[in-house]
Specification:
The structure is a single chain. This protein is 59% helix and 8% strand. It is an alpha/beta fold. Among the domains are: 214 residues, no CATH class; 253 residues, Spore Coat Polysaccharide Biosynthesis Protein SpsA, Chain A, CATH 3.90.550. The strands form two sheets. Strands 5-4-3-6-8-7-9 form a seven-stranded mixed beta sheet, sandwiched between helices. Helix 15 crosses helix 17. The chain is globular. It is a multi-pass membrane protein. It is found in: Golgi apparatus membrane. InterPro entries: Glyco_trans_2-like, Nucleotide-diphossugar_trans. It comes from Davidia involucrata (Dove tree).
Length: 688
């Protein structure tokens, strides 16, 4: 039996609820159910404040994100407009006589690239028409298209037949040849890296039979052999003081060392400055001579040859050579000369280069990767296992007897350092490379200077190979050394490398986009080059973030190296032209001044002579620079071959996008952008 409802309690409860509505309220939507919730007034206000604050914070976050987006968009827009203005300015100023004269040298290769660009653009237009007509998905055949009235479809059907039967097979054959060469060169690179790891793991390095103490005053002077130090230079206005000071501060008995300043400058003002610097050090008691040639025949080789013909050279046993931008440490001779003791068949001790401006811009960082691998891996491995490598032309010490025995300096190529190294090797002399002895120098900071340097470095070896090939075959060295010189030193590393780099990535890859019957595997485009880039960057671990720009830039430089290789091999254009690499004087001038001031021995009676001479020399230098400031305007340039290849690769990337080839598309896109950046001279030093 159910209990009767209590109406009195219900009426009392309703009165209390209306009276205290802020404490008790009903949230139920069902009137038959009674729900009671107790809420504090303070907690309600806090919740409302938190809700208001959260909404306000959300609004501020949205506004901040919007502001960041607007700032990023404005920055990208400004950068793009600045890029367009820079390109427009360089295009409008690229028709100067100096630019035109420099452009004529590579006109043959440029004409070929330009014709290739025209063909590629026409093929892209044709493929776009076929794509929008649906022929990519259902390609017409010659038989079916003959019954169709559409002339364009008939032409496209015949084009498909021609490229499948006649164009793709030879392209595929060339592709296979380049892939084989690429793999051979990659295997060589892997073996070099493994050899370097073995040297590091076993801690192998040349050992000298003696060492010089740091205190040379208490030692017998006769224990120090006679050393000739040579600094060849030509119009080295920016760096002559630093190199002369570094050499004159060598910790070596002064009566056992003679410094030759071999000046080939045709600038009278620079000659005056160098003469004044030499006189300053002569007054300090340094045995230093100034030599100047009236006729600059043979460039650097002719300069060194002329200096070695002096009568007093016969009194010296060794000669150390430094370019004008090099700064050897005070103990350079003490660290290199001891290796000649007890090694009568040793001709050369080569040291490593260290760069004072390797972090100056992107171009110098990429150069540092290349040269770090060259010294850490190539020179060290070849020096340890076969006692032969190419002389780097500077920061090395030669035995004068070895130079004379192999014929001395010859003027027949633009790589006189490699020339004399090969001839000394054929005469049976051995070389030693010291990776732990470093000599400061400067990297070219502008793309123009770097390009000219690379052209000389890659045309000269082909000149030398053509001249000394018969001498290698007739030499008395072992068959193994002959094979190493011909196949590895010259063919693989000097000829095949620039050939396949340019042909494979700048010619074949774009063509395979328009001739899809010829296949270039993705592992050739991406994976193996990426692995080789990782190996190249190991000696410079700080440069790991630049591995992708390094890979793309090396492919971009292949056009310069290929052009230089062809011109040197067939004696084309300006292959024998020697252009001095432009320096900016980034070497550590303050360190040299500190070294001079910290010398314990007084150099001259008048202690103020050095400072006064230095200040007067700097004042005179500034005055001469101001007089010549407006004579030659320094500016960035445009590079036609690189720009043409940029448009070829970007055009091919559009074609690959139609075929949905992912890796090929991205590689062509970024490689084309890299060519565009280099062609607009945006990678190195920027002149406002």
């Amino acid at each position: 039996m159910s209990r009767p409802p209590n109406y009195e309690f219900q009426e009392w409860w309703n009165e209390q609820r209306e009276k205290h509505n802020d404490l008790f309220f009903d949230k139920s939507e069902n009137p038959s159910l009674l729900t009671v919730e107790i809420q504090s007034p303070t907690a309600d206000q806090t919740v409302e404040k938190e809700r208001t604050r959260s909404a306000r914070q959300l609004s501020w976050v949205c506004l901040l994100k919007f502001q960041q987006f607007v700032n990023s968009f404005a920055y990208l827009t400004t950068a793009f407009i600045s890029l367009l203005r820079t390109a427009n300015r360089r295009i409008s100023t690229s028709e100067s006589p100096s630019d035109l004269s420099s452009l004529r040298s590579g006109s043959r290769l440029y004409r070929v690239i330009k014709a290739f660009l025209i063909i590629v653009v026409l093929l892209l237009v044709f493929e776009l028409v076929a794509y929008f007509k649906g022929w990519h998905f259902s390609p017409p055949s010659v038989g079916s298209a003959a019954d169709v009235v559409d002339f364009v479809e008939l032409v496209y059907a015949n084009w498909l037949d021609i490229r499948a039967k006649y164009l793709a097979p030879p392209l595929q054959s060339l592709t296979n040849v380049c892939i084989v060469l690429f793999l051979i060169q990659s295997v060589d690179r892997v073996f070099l890296v493994l050899g370097c790891f073995w040297i590091k793991f076993r801690k192998l390095k040349p050992v000298a039979v003696m060492e010089y103490s740091a205190d040379s005053e208490n030692e017998n002077v006769e224990d120090y052999p006679m050393v000739l130090v040579q600094i060849p230079m030509c119009n080295e206005r920016e760096v002559y003081q630093q190199s002369i000071a570094a050499v004159c501060l060598q910790d070596w008995p002064r009566e056992r060392m003679l410094v030759q300043i071999l000046d080939d400058s045709d600038d009278m003002d620079v000659q005056v400055l160098i003469k004044a610097e030499v006189q300053k050090w002569q007054q300090r008691g340094v045995r230093i001579l100034y030599r100047h040639r009236l006729i600059r025949t043979g460039y650097k080789a002719g300069n060194l040859k002329s200096a070695m013909s002096c009568d007093y050279v016969k009194d010296y046993e060794f000669v150390a050579i430094f370019d004008a931008d090099f700064q050897p440490g005070p103990d350079f001779l003490k660290k290199t000369i001891p290796y000649f003791k007890g090694n009568d068949d040793l001709a050369l001790v080569q040291t490593r280069w260290a760069f004072v401006n390797k972090d100056e811009n992107l171009l110098t960082r990429l150069q540092n990767i290349n040269l770090s691998f060259h010294f850490e891996v190539e020179q060290q491995v070849n020096g340890w296992f076969i006692n032969f490598f190419g002389f780097n032309g500077t920061a090395g010490v030669w035995r004068i007897k070895a130079l004379e025995e192999c014929g001395g300096w010859l003027e027949r190529t633009t790589v006189e350092d490699m020339d004399i190294a090969v001839r000394a090797h054929l005469c049976g002399w051995k070389f030693i490379y010291l990776n732990d002895v470093k000599c400061l120098c400067e990297l070219p900071e502008s793309y123009e200077a770097y390009k000219k340097q690379q052209h000389r470095w890659h045309s000269g070896p082909m000149q030398l190979f053509r001249l000394c090939f018969v001498d290698i075959l007739h030499s008395k060295v072992s068959l193994t050394k002959k094979a190493n010189l011909i196949f590895l030193f010259f063919l693989l590393r000097k000829l095949i490398l620039p050939f396949y780099s340019f042909t494979l990535f700048c010619i074949i890859l774009p063509l395979t986009m328009f001739l899809p019957e010829a296949q270039l595997p993705a592992w050739v485009v991406c994976y193996v080059p990426g692995l080789m880039s990782i190996l190249n960057i190991l000696p410079a671990p700080r440069s790991v973030p630049f591995i992708v720009p390094y890979l793309l830039f090396e492919n971009t430089m292949s056009v310069t190296k290929f052009n230089a290789m062809i011109s040197g091999l067939f004696q084309l254009g300006n292959s024998y032209e020697w252009i001095v690499t432009k320096k900016l004087g980034r070497s550590s001038e303050a360190d040299l001044v500190a070294m001079v001031e910290n010398e314990s021995e007084p150099l001259v009676e008048n202690t103020g002579l050095h400072r006064s001479s230095s200040e007067s020399g700097l004042a005179e230098l500034n005055k001469l620079e101001m007089t010549k400031k407006y004579g030659k305007i320094k500016r960035n340039r445009l590079y036609r071959k690189e720009l043409a290849l940029a448009f070829i690769l970007l055009t091919a990337s559009v074609r690959s996008l139609l075929s949905a080839q992912g890796i090929h598309f991205y590689f062509l896109l970024f490689q084309g952008i890299t060519f565009l950046i280099v062609g607009l001279d945006l990678i190195g030093e920027q002149v406002s």
